[in-house]
Amino acid sequence: MIAMPLGLSIYLTRKFKQGWRLFWIGAATLIFSQVLHIPFNALVSPVFSRFGFIALPVVLQNVIISGFFGLSAGLFEELSRFGMYRWWAKDARSWGKGLLAGAGHGGSEAIILGLLVLYGYIQMLIVRGMDISTRVSPDQVELAKAQIQAYWAAPWYLTMLGAVERLFTIPLHLACSVLVVQALIRKKFWWVGLAILFHALADGVAVFVSQRGFSALAIEGIIGIFGIVSVVIVFVLRKPESITEPISTPILTPEFKPKQLKETLENLDQTRFQ
Question: Is the pTM here over 0.85, yes or no?
C-alpha cells in the first residue's frame, strides 16, 4: 500500500521528466477534500439512522444510502480536483501531468491507509504476548482476546486485500484525474460531471455490496472491475506529450564592408605606419 504509489510516481516522474510537485499538489488536494468530506458524512449519517426509510424495502434503503454517500465522495473529491487544476496546478494541461496529479491524489490515500495498517500490525505484535487483562476492563477481556486471536488466525490472502483494493482504486484516481483535466484542455465542464458520476458509481456500488453482506473477496472483485474500466479510460484519453523546444533565432549582422578612404597626405600622417 505504501510501495505501490511511490513506485508508480517514480516511474511517472521519470517518464514525463517532471518533478514531484504535481504529486504533492495531488496529495494536498486529497487531504483538503477529506477535511470537508469526512465532517459532511459525519453530519449527515445520523439523519439516515434517525429517520431511516421505514416505509421502503431494505434493498431500496441500501440503494439510496449507498448512492448518496457515493455521490458525496464524487462531488467533494472531483470538485476539489477541478479547483486544483483551475487555481493551483495551472500548468497541468496534459495527459501525463494529469496522471502525476492523480498518482498524488490516489497514492497519498494509499500511503495513509498503509501507515494505519502498519500501526495496527505493530499494536497487535505488542499485545500478542501481553497479559491483556492489564490493559482492558475485566468485562472486555474475552472480547479483546477473541479479536486478537481472529487477527492472527486470518488467512494470509485476506491480509493482502487492503493492498489489492489500493491496486484497483489508484487507477480510478488516475482515470478521474485525466477526465477532470479534459475540462480545462477542451473547455467543457461536463468532463468534471463525468468524473463525478464515475467516482460516485464506484464508491456507491462498493458501499451497497458491503451493506448486502457480500464476502470480502466478492467486494474486491467488483472494485477490480472498476479498476479495469479506469485503466481503459486512462488509455482511451491518452495523447502524446507535446515537446516544446526553445526556438533559436539567428542573429543577423550586416555584412562588414571596409570604408574606402581617399589617401591624402593628411591621412598618412595620422597613421602609425610611416
Answer: no
